Every structure is written in C-alpha cells, then in structure tokens.
TrEMBL record:
SUPFAM superfamilies: SGNH hydrolase. InterPro entries: GDSL, GDSL_Est/Lipase, SGNH_hydro_sf, SGNH_plant_lipase-like. CDD domains: SGNH_plant_lipase_like. Coiled coil: none annotated. It holds the Pfam family Lipase_GDSL. PANTHER family: GDSL LIPASE/ACYLHYDROLASE FAMILY PROTEIN (AFU_ORTHOLOGUE AFUA_4G14700), GDSL-LIKE LIPASE_ACYLHYDROLASE. This is GDSL esterase/lipase. It comes from the Eukaryota. Keywords: Hydrolase, Lipid degradation, Lipid metabolism, Signal. Belongs to the 'GDSL' lipolytic enzyme family. Residues 1-29 form the signal peptide.
C-alpha cells in the first residue's frame, strides 16, 4: 500500500472512531436511575395512598398524551429531558408501575416519590410515600430482579455504567422545618445546625447509593425556595422572596457541594456531580424575559395571590400558554423551565456544574467504557 493510500485509510479509521464515539451512546443508551421528590417523581405516588399526587388534570396538559401521568409538570419533567439527552428512546418507568418488567428494566427505573425528604419525618402529612431509605431498598430489589435475567456480573456492569439523578432536600425545609411555626425540628435545631444535620444524613444516603453500585450521580441542590409562587403568596412581606427560605437555600447549597467534593476525594473518583439548581433558577427569576417567560412570580395553575395558594386542580386558574411561565404550579417549574435547567446541566460552566457538566461527563465515559 502506498503512503498516500495508507494515510487515506488512517483518516477513515480516525473518522470512524469519531463517529462511533458520537453514535455509541445513542445506539446503546446507558441505564438511568432517578431518586428523590416531586421534582423528579414520574408517577410512583399514583400507586400509593397519599395526598401528594399529580394524576388529575390539568397536570400533563402538554405531555405528549395530553393526560396526567403523576409528573408534577404541565409536560415533561427533568428526568424525561435528561433521558432524551442521553439518547434513551423512553424514560425509565416509575418503579411501582406494573409495566416495569422484562426488557424495560434495562432502561433503568424511577424511584422518586413526591413529598419525601432526606429525613424520615419530612412529609409525614402526606402519609404513604416512598422515603429515601425505602427508595434505596427498592434499588437493591431492582438489581435482584435484573440479575434473574442477565446474572450478577452483567447487572453490576449495567448499574456501574448507569447515570443516576437524585433531587431531594427542598421538602426538608418547606414540608418539615418551616411547615408550621415552632415545628419540632425548628425547636430542636437552629437553622445552621439543621442544615449541618441534613447534610450529614444526606451523605449517608449517598454513600449507600455508591455501595449499591452507582458511579455517576447527578445531585441537584435546592432551588431558591423562598421565590416559588407558594412562598411569595404565603410568606413574602414586600413582594420579594421569603428571606428565611432564601437564607436556608444559601446555607444548604454550598455545604452540599462541599460534602460531594469530600465524598469524591474519599472515593478517589468524580462519582458525584453537583448541579447548582439554585443559580439556574435564580437566573430566570431575576430576568424572566431573557428566557422567554412573561413571569416567574405567578404560577400558571393555582389560585390566590401569585396563583400560589393550595393545589393545582381543574378548578384553578390556568394560563393559556405554559411556555410563558417559569412555574407551572405553586412549587414546580414548567416544562419550559425544566428544559432550561437541563440545558445548563448538559453544558453549563463550572459556575453551574461541579466538577463538570454532563456533556463533558458523557464524553469522558465514552472513552473509558
Ligand atoms: C429511617 O427509617 C428507616 C426505617 O425505619 C431506618 O432504617 C433509618 O435508619 C431511618 N433513617 C434515619 C435517618 O433516621
Ligand atoms: C460544558 O459543555 C460544553 C458543551 O458541550 C463545553 O463546550 C464546555 O466547555 C463545558 N464547560 C465546562 C466548564 O466544562
């Protein structure tokens, strides 16, 4: 072979490798596991006797089927959009969905349950919800079910290569410490001590997740909790965000990042990736127009001041165009806002993602897998 032809072939090999690296994650998407609260619940609570549910209209009004699914969104939620981004053709089903059997198990599973927190005593008013320790037990049970199909070693590989998302913590403030004046936790702890306690309990849960085989875990912080329409309606004194909940978010989020960095150092690998959801949401709260929203203070669906009181039901006010609202209901972002958040998770700078964004992580993994 002449020099010219051989370098011609080399070019094709390099080109082929580049194509393979781009296509591989699409052709054979990794599994995806989701843990946490209503921000990521895709319908587990539909199967439970609980008041924390989103299985009635107008939830799901912009979902492909135009029907409620249990997602706390007008359409897609953050796990749906991440699943899209990593090349899955279907997002993982809720773990309690009876259709989660056979081949569908290999896509992953969503263990999240609206109303839960880091602590067991968070969300007790919702009665029957899947608390964090139970979500992790279900993850273990899931692995046994997959082992029955592909054996122990392949199951471990599937779990090790999977992407994991965990979103929890907000309810430990709004549905525990600040749920009622003089709550048990607020009498037990000052806010800074409560935050320290939450972080130390969260660390244990994440360590358990690691021991169960998770190796790539996206961990979101809380949003700017004091600025959601519900808090603007209930606590705001001057039309601005609730100062107390903003103080809680400001204490909690940086300590969460530090804890994750500590875990990564201890493990010796970047297992835990922090997503600064506080900053991401703050961006469209401070300048909604820049993101195509007409407002970030009024929920699309609700009643009372800011549409921030009570639940979103068929009797609520409902905005005609959901894409113009940062908040779908008094607590949860619209699909449009979720898309912006996932965009930042994918390609945000280190101001948003620590130590790296998801596209960098996916590129790294396509080299090593
Ligand atoms: C939560 O409850 C479970 C089951 O009762 C228990 O095993 C676990 O230790 C509890 N977690 C905390 C932080 O108390
Ligand atoms: C994040 O992702 C984008 C797009 O893939 C990339 O160009 C950028 O350099 C990344 N940013 C950081 C800080 O890693």
């Amino acid at each position: 072979m002449s020099m010219a032809t051989s370098s011609y072939f080399n070019c094709w090999i390099i080109f082929g490798l580049a194509v393979a690296m781009i296509v591989a994650p699409l052709a054979e998407a990794r599994a995806f596991f989701v843990f946490g609260d209503s921000l990521v619940d895709s319908g587990n609570n539909n199967y439970l006797a609980t008041t924390a549910r989103a299985d009635a209209p107008p939830y799901g009004i912009d979902y492909p089927t135009r029907r409620p699914t249990g997602r706390f969104s007008n359409g897609l939620n953050i796990p749906d959009i991440i699943s899209e981004q990593i090349g899955q053709s279907q997002p993982p089903l809720p773990y309690l969905n009876p259709e989660l059997t056979g081949q569908k198990l290999f896509v992953g599973a969503n263990f999240a349950s609206a109303g839960i927190g880091i602590l067991n005593d968070t969300g007790i008013q919702f009665i029957n919800i899947i608390r964090m320790f139970r979500q992790l037990e279900y993850f273990e049970e899931y692995q046994h079910r997959v082992q029955a199909f592909i054996g122990e070693q392949k199951t471990r590989q599937l779990v090790n290569k999977a992407l994991v998302l965990i979103t929890v913590g907000g309810n430990d403030f709004v549905n525990n410490y600040y749920l009622v004046p003089f709550s048990a936790r607020s009498r037990q702890f000052s806010l800074p001590d409560y935050v320290k306690y939450l972080i130390s309990e969260y660390r244990k849960l994440l360590m358990r997740l690691y021991k169960l085989g998770a190796r790539r875990v996206l961990v979101t912080g809380t949003g700017p909790m004091g600025c959601v329409p519900a808090e603007l309606a209930m606590r705001s004194t001057n039309g601005g965000c609730s100062a107390e909940l903003q103080r809680a978010a400001a204490l909690y989020n940086p300590q969460l990042v530090q804890m994750l960095q500590g875990l990564n150092r201890e493990i010796g690998k970047n297992v835990f990736i922090a997503a600064n959801t506080q900053q991401m949401h703050m961006d469209f709260i401070s300048d909604p127009q820049a993101y195509g929203f007409t407002t970030s203070k009024i929920a699309c669906c609700g009643q009372g001041p800011n549409n921030g009181l009570g639940l979103c039901t068929v009797l609520s006010n409902l905005c005609p165009d959901r894409d113009h609202y940062a908040f779908w209901d008094p607590f949860h972002p619209s699909e449009k806002a979720n898309r912006i958040t996932v965009q930042q998770i994918m390609s945000g700078s280190t101001q948003y993602m620590t130590p790296m964004n998801l596209s960098t992580l996916l590129a790294l993994d396509s080299f090593t897998n």
